[in-house]
Specification:
Length: about 675
Amino acid sequence: MFKYFTSSSSRLHFTYIRRIGFTKTTLTAELLTGNKLNKPNSNTESETDSNNNKMSKTVEDIILSKTESTFQYDKDLLTLPVPGLSNTLKKYLASVKVLVTEEEYKKTELIVSQFANGEGKYLHEKFRAKAANKRNWLEEWWEDAAYLELRLPRPLMNMGGPAPYSEDVWPPVADSQIPRAAMCMYYILKYWEFTRKEKHKPMKDSKGRPLCMYQFKRIFNTCAVPGVQKDKLIQYFKTESEGFCPTNVIVISNGHIFSITPFDDKGEILTVPEIQFLLQQVRTRSKLLGLGQGLTYLTAEERTKWAKARNRLVALHPQNYVNLTKIQTSIIAFWLEDGNAGDVSDLANRAILGHGENRWLDKSLSCGVYENGLFVSNADHTPAEGIMMTYVTSYVHLKLRECGGQWQGNQQLRKLEEPELLQFVIDDSLKADIATAKQNYSVLRNIATNEIKVYSKYGKNYCKEKMVKLIKKSENLKLEKKTKKPCYRMAPTYETAPIKQFYHGRTETMRTCTQEAKNWCIAMTDPSVSTSERYRLFKVALKKHNSDFSDACEFKGCDRHLLALWLTAKEEKLPVPQIYLDPSYAKSGGGGNFILSTSCIGFSTVIGGVLPMCENCIGTFYRINDDRLSFFVTTWNADKDTNTSDFAEAICCALDKLKVLIDEQPMTPSSRL
């Protein structure tokens, strides 16, 4: 069935299939699926294989270029345009209409009309004047409003997920933590090196347009620094042509923070056995020292509290500032975790809400490895989208497949610089702050549940064969059972649309709840509607979805423009315009009130997500492979109307129903979508 019941409510939830929301470039298609790659040591059938077992290219053949440099097109990218006010308001009204009553819509329509001819027109002109002098007028506003000004603890905002290495190359094995961590670090550093030397091939979209590569500079050597009112994001990464870049890596074990330098005196990356030797030193020494100071828990605190504690830490002793700088400037952080991890859902929970002793959550990218050799990743969302972390993890995974997870190089050890223990000077006040932070995090760890669900009845191949360009996404329809005749209420849904063809472009919101989608959803739950009519409505909904997605990818949505107008009013010290105070604004998802937050992770073996966007929200993030679809579903534990497992099962039921609908259609030219 399409529906699932919650234990405390008569509401039903419905999922439906929608078009893919990930920009598939030629480069990402080859790298992330593993197509055309040489994988001689992989003896496990992978979902990313494309029926081509005689692959000749290496990963480097796919992602590196000898003729183009990584960032060479960035300066020539299109300036982010200023949307037209009328189009933005038209898009907004269309998204509202399906979510509110007729009476509510009429009120909203009047408010929007008054806004368009009054304060909205004034704010738009003010905004246009400001944007005229910027390559990307959204960039600073977005980072501030969406990330840096928020006071929420980092675990509620960071991205995380399991690394895919255990799917084929590295199943759980006792005492494999250190050798596997060393090999993983080695390949991550290789990716860092490609970026620093600007060897990574510039990405282009299906139209041949160059895409912004700026976020590649923000994966590594980047850190958030807490502020009392607003955090700062500091980027220390530089290419070789730009100058010096720090080369240390932070390794945290048993609560102790170490800095290691995994490079020799010529700037070459150490071998895997040498990195393993350093990591073993860290692990052994950290165990001998007992449990660490617990400073890491402060990074999981409410941001103003962490900022004040950090200020005290810096003022207490100059060595504290030196240590903090080494953490901030480091390439990446590695956590050597205690104990063993379980299945992918267990890893999904550990990635975002695992034990806090070893986590410096301000780092742009961190990797955790457990004693049985299973990995998780955690990343700050401020500097980059989740797909950037997917690129790194996919590269590591494909390299592990090439070598069968075993180091094939030099086994000899040279004389190495010992790991440096970063010992902080703390006083009783900071000890009290740490104790409070530790207690707060123990509560926070139980705030949400994540589950990864794999649907293996079909995937990309079936969709290409049967539905041409149709690929899975999910939508949420709630049915309120108040009378014998059910009434239907759509939930505001957020889908990420990439806009990287623009200078420093990130994303626009696609509002996927449309009247066309609602009509189809209702038909699918009404037994009196014929199969042919359901299929017709499905194609209408899909056409509308594809059109809206294309608009969003060309920056013709409504949310980023509405944010700009609201922030312009704030900067002008004007009252909040009525359009934002209207209940329809929140009901349609405005102000971060999307009940279903979704994003496509791509076509790789990697999956991850973030915690739900708001109260009563469900987060659904997914990857698409040849023969399966995988979902990272997350819900708040305090919300009795949502349930992670039930919603994951509802997705699978919806996919079953859709397959039945499609299979019943004759595959004639007129039926192709």
